[in-house]
């Protein structure tokens, strides 16, 4: 097997290393090697990782013992599929019983130097305890993937997402810093901050922006409202995480049109940082699964075994460089489809052509059809005359579930009459979804904008009648 760059356990990186300016890959061998050879190395790392977790983490020792497994049983990646998955609720429950980091912390708590975590909006927040060795490894991983995006030391990277416990902001920050770029951690979420973001972006000549797709579109609106041309800001690249969008054709194109930039998708879960281990390396929809950083399996959500390439499933993640809180087969509950490695893409990792495009628990059913909100987003946001936001309302009249899509309609952006426009969008939705939707237009700026992640779905069984205003079909 070819000797892989910086492949050791625990991970160790040369802090002074940076590729030559014209080199496409941070680690040419690791990123372009034969996938089967890489899989051999990954299996060896998984065996090391499981032995380490068995010794240091009662959580894993207990879970695997209950399943009748020991680390020595894992002699192939196929055998690894029999290791039980971890659920987020298990992590929360374990942390409540073993505060503050849970019994899956594999280092002395005094070694924790960075604390991040979930928001806790749907229950007890989960704390991520990161030791300095892991922080360095994550920064190196993110720098490597950002290098693949074409970000270079001469860039000025503006971080346009909340600088709180949210891992996304800090991952982008640490990666840009390790890469040698100038980092501008501006943040987001404070009233009036969007205009200041644009002003500082222009003043500091930012060339790269990181945030959520929703916030990028919000910035474009604020810019136009204040006579600022987003295309004249000087940005050359924007990369995103936190929500689907950068690989959704309609959302992606709106960002490109607004800013005249290259767009890169990325992002998995904070629990498995480096979350950019799902990350683009070209100006096109989709992301690579950087398997030598976080081993990603796209699995059947029932059997939790890998689905064939070309199939849809839910990602299951195993961190290969985390020593403080390693995640071993963590279930994401997201949805994606993967394709086999193809060296013509420039790297030999499996590829997710639509990125992460939804969550199993976000999917809803209307009259027997499974509907993903992002499918609706793509239809309405690509319609000429779309006014900037929309809402999806699931309701019920009598015994039948109904789907209502409220869409801001801007007559100045189309020559089509409003009633004709509604009919066209309704027909497009029926074609894509396989079920009818009631389309209702509202005035532009009806819906509140967001500086972070968009929340567009309302499941309300009594709201339908009160929203029956405007043109509809």
From TrEMBL:
Gene3D superfamilies: 3.30.300.30, N-terminal domain of ligase-like (3.40.50.12780). InterPro entries: AMP-bd_C_sf, AMP-dep_Lig_C, AMP-dep_synth/lig_dom, ANL_N_sf. Coiled coil: none annotated. Residues 368-461 form the AMP-dependent ligase C-terminal domain. SUPFAM superfamilies: Acetyl-CoA synthetase-like (SSF56801). It comes from the Bacteria. Residues 118-313 form the AMP-dependent synthetase/ligase domain. This is AMP-binding protein. It comes from Candidatus Mycolicibacterium alkanivorans.
